[in-house]
Amino acid sequence: MCPERIAATVDVVIEVRELTKRYGATVAVDRLSFTVEPGYVTGFLGPNGAGKSTTMRMILGLDRPTEGEALVNGSRYAVSKRPMNEVGALLDASAVHGGRTAVNHLRCLARSNGIGDARVAAVLDEVGLREVAGRRVGGFSLGMRQRLGIAAALLGDPGVVLFDEPVNGLDPEGIRWIRDLMRALAHEGRTVLVSSHLMSEMALTADRVLVVGRGSLIADTSIAELAEQYRKDVFVRTGADADLARLLRSEGARVDEVPGGGLAVAGMSSPRISELAFAAGILPHELTPRSASLEDAYLDITDDAVEYRAQGGSR
Amino acid sequence: MTDVVASEWLKVRTVRSTFWLLAATAAVFVIGCVVSVMMVADWDSAPPGDQASFGSADMSVMVLPFMMFSLGALGALAITAEYGSGMIRPALVSVPKRLRLLTAKAVVVGVIGLAAGLVLSSAMLFAVDVIVGDRPAPIAAWPSISDGVPYVLASSVTVMVVALVGLGLGTAIRSAAGSLVTMTVLLYVLPVAVFFLPASWSTNLSAVLLLNLPHQLAGDLPGMPLSQAGAAAALAAYVVLALGAAAVSIGKRDA
Question: Under an 8 Å CB criterion, which residues of A touch B?
């Protein structure tokens, strides 16, 4: 690889360009383009059937795109020279041969990349499956299979990890564990792409979210921006914003001036704001409660996509 | 490539179906020994006139078709188990170059097929030799044990080919049931179906059936339709067709 090429791709580890996947008349992924950078947990968020898993499979070279391309470190993953060291993936935790023991399952995968048994033992330790390493995977609970799948993804000490719905089937302790794990992986400078249909989960884990619906990108934003955009507050516009702001602050509200006019008031109900404005002789021109949690924000931005798909399905 | 072969070898070793298929083949060998012993006992008690009309006590007529099916199933399961469980995806994430994965599987399946064929065919040759003792033809399959060696080698090669055909079918069909049914048709149904065709077709087609190739490859029976080279070419064609279809299927289709 020439140096210029490295320089051009150093900050973009996963690059998806105009990626499209059609199954007959059904469009699963529709000209999807995004990039994923290292050092962050990037959430890949969307309702069930939005095309998240299909996109991940195309990134991994498992499914062939109808159009467009998906690149990992500047080239297609299908031609990777050191696959497990480049990418680790958890797709479907139940996709294991039930007759193999946990340790043998991992050894089979590890051996294909020349990874030794010491590393297998280390990842089993890391995911907390050491005690059950000799047991057949067929008897594992979904949570244990998720841990095994994560162990498999970590075997090659990969620079990129892709997790598809990793918290499914995990208990609260397990959910916290994987949250911490993903944040730690990102903190080490790795590229972490994790899909979920739960905004609440992504809010606690991801730095940035890509929201998809009907196979298209709906939003590409940071969690902070999304929270800012959709936080729970009251929007007030008056002829005397500055006076009202001072008044409301003295009554204990958090007030921010909105660029372009108006106040964003948090920590105070709209009847109370209206009472105080009335008492001070300030006439509110507009007083709008904005009550959107991140979950609401997510539902709001994916709403059209879901609706459209339901109509499409009934054709 | 060595790593991928080592991985596939470990995969085959760590599933119970491998053990059961080989154990079942060994069990049929034991039954074959019993049948041979009974044939020889029957021969001993038959009047000399009837003795001349006996078939040989070679148990391979019974054991070899079963061994072919077992090893064909082993070949098919080497990949259908992965498609069936979904393990094919983690496998292809670990080894994204698909032809490399298929080649590694073919190496492992082929070696197991050849080794199992050699071990069991040799065991049959020695067992029949011991059971028959110094009795003459027709109950003795071969004048001396060394005359049976070409057939042992030819049987082993054919078993290896059947195992690879199983892998090819499994890769193209992806389902264990579908592959095993197709395998059954190839090994057992076609020979019967061919029997109902016009005589000229029947002879030509049955010559290239897997069950009929070992003796033609060994060249140890008179009046066979194919030469040894012809039998070798037929076996090679099976491998090329099956693995070719597998390569196209694994290369083109979504996993």
Answer: 57, 60-64, 77-80, 83-84, 87, 89, 91-92, 94-101, 104, 107-114, 149, 152
Residues above pLDDT 70, as percent of chain A: 90
Q: What is the pTM of this model?
A: 0.84
Taking contacts as CB-CB distances below 8 angstroms, the residues of chain B near A152 are: 90
Query: What is the structure's pLDDT at A8?
Result: 44
Q: What is the mean pLDDT of residues A9-15?
A: 76
| pLDDT tier for residue A54 given thresholds of 50, 70 and 90 | very high
Which residues of B have a CB under 8 Å from any CB of A? Answer: 3-4, 6-8, 10-11, 14-17, 81-82, 85-98, 252, 254-255
Say yes or no: ipTM exceeds 0.85.
Answer: yes
To test the contact with chain B by mutation, choose from A62, A115, A148 the residue with the greatest count of B C-beta atoms within 10 A, namely A62
- Order of strands across the sheet with A14-23? A26-36, A14-23, A67-72
What are the CA-CA distances from residue B112 to residues B56, B70, B74, B159 (Å)? 29, 11, 9, 10
Reported as a single tens digit per residue, the pLDDT across A287-304 is: 888 756 667 777 777 776
Two tokens, residue B213: 């190739």
Between chains, do B90 and A89 touch, taking CB under 8 Å as contact? yes
Mean model confidence pLDDT for chain A: 87
- Closest by Cβ to A95, choosing from B10, B11, B90: B90
Report pLDDT for B48.
Answer: 86
